[in-house]
């Protein structure tokens, strides 16, 4: 049995995949990649690193393909990554201490702190660092519920925390932020439809005033996004706008 697999789902990730795979290829036992029908050079890059590739469709809830990658991994341990993430040398050493049995553990999974890059700037607050996510797990012990875009991995068993961060490069520009946000807005609007969210004045006020106000002040004040200045303000504002934009799209689609 292989010791450590990297599980990754992709769709048109040629701009960022190379850096991701470069950061792990020399020390993991397997790269398991599920591709949702990329039309760019994603698979060419994956083949360069001898990844095992499963070709499939690109479902709206992309966690479905992440789960396929987890299920198909053969390592005793699985490191789940996104194509826009990079493992640092410090994090690599910490992971190897666990997967090479240099550190005895009964834990079934590990939270990894994630450091987020927003339009040319590292965010240090606003809920963006440390952005803890379960990414390292024993094979077969974890799964994505695959019901919502906002969900996280669920682990059966005890979970601990690693110290060194995973680097995340999701948004190189404001334009890229809104291109990706558009997909999340559509998914949330679909969730509203499935829940049959009421179309009344109270709901309108909730999603266009109350929720965005709470979200903004939570990120910018409670989680100290103001420490990151202008970029912390923009991140909090853009995040808060998800609520009214998804609600208005839901309303538009149900007229």
Summarize the structure.
The protein contains seven helices and 13 strands. With 255 residues, the protein is an alpha/beta fold.
What is the ordering of alpha helices and beta strands?
EHEHEHEEHEEEEEEEEHHH
Largest sheet: 7 strands, mixed
Looking at CATH, the homologous superfamily of the largest domain is Spore Coat Polysaccharide Biosynthesis Protein SpsA, Chain A
Helix content: 40-55%
Poorly predicted tracts of residues: none
Give me the Rg, rounded. Answer: 19 Å
Order of strands across the biggest sheet?
Answer: 3-2-1-4-9-6-12
Strand content: 15-25%
Report how far the terminal alpha carbons are from each other: 55 Å
State the shape: globular
> How many domains make up the 3D coordinates?
2
Oligomer: single chain
- What's the total number of strands? 13
- CATH T-level topology of the largest domain: Spore Coat Polysaccharide Biosynthesis Protein SpsA, Chain A
Mean pLDDT: 94
Count of separate DSSP helical elements: 7
Structural class: alpha/beta
CATH class of the largest domain: Alpha Beta
Task: Explain what you see.
The longest helix is centred in the C-terminal third of the chain and has 25 residues, at about 230-255. Helix 5 (about 175-195) packs parallel to helix 7 (about 230-255) and helix 6 (about 200-220) runs antiparallel to helix 7. The protein has helices spanning about 15-20, 40-50, 65-70, 90-100, 175-195, 200-220, 230-255, and strands spanning about 1-10, 30-35, 50-55, 75-80, 85, 110, 115-120, 120, 135-140, 140-145, 155, 160, 165-170. It has about 260 residues and is an alpha/beta fold. It has a seven-stranded mixed beta sheet with strand order 3-2-1-4-9-6-12. Strands 5-13-7-8 form a four-stranded mixed beta sheet. It folds into two domains: about 1-170, Spore Coat Polysaccharide Biosynthesis Protein SpsA, Chain A, CATH 3.90.550; about 175-255, no CATH class. It is globular. It is built from seven helices and 13 strands.
């Amino acid at each position: 049995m292989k010791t450590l697999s990297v599980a990754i789902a992709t769709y048109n990730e040629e701009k960022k995949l190379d850096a991701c795979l470069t950061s792990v290829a020399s020390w993991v036992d397997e790269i398991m990649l599920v591709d949702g029908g990329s039309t760019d050079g994603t698979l060419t890059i994956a083949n360069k690193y001898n990844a095992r590739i499963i070709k499939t469709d690109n479902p709206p809830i992309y966690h479905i393909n992440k789960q396929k990658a987890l299920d198909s991994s053969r390592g005793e341990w699985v490191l789940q990554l996104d194509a826009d993430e990079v493992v640092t040398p410090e994090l690599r050493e910490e992971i190897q201490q666990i997967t090479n049995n240099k550190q005895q553990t009964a834990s079934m999974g590990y939270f990894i702190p994630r450091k987020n890059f927003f339009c040319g700037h590292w965010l240090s607050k606003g809920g963006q660092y440390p952005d803890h996510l379960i990414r390292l797990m024993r094979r077969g012990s974890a799964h994505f519920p695959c019901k919502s875009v906002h969900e996280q991995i669920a682990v059966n068993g005890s979970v601990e925390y690693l110290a060194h961060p995973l680097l995340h490069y999701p948004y190189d520009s404001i334009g890229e932020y809104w291109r990706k946000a558009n997909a999340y807005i559509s998914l949330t609007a679909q969730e509203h439809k499935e829940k049959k969210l009421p179309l009344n004045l109270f709901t309108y006020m909730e999603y266009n005033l109350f929720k965005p106000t709470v979200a903004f002040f939570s990120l910018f004040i409670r989680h100290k996004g103001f420490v990151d200045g202008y970029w912390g303000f923009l991140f909090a504002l853009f995040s808060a706008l998800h609520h009214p934009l998804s609600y208005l799209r839901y309303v538009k689609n149900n007229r």
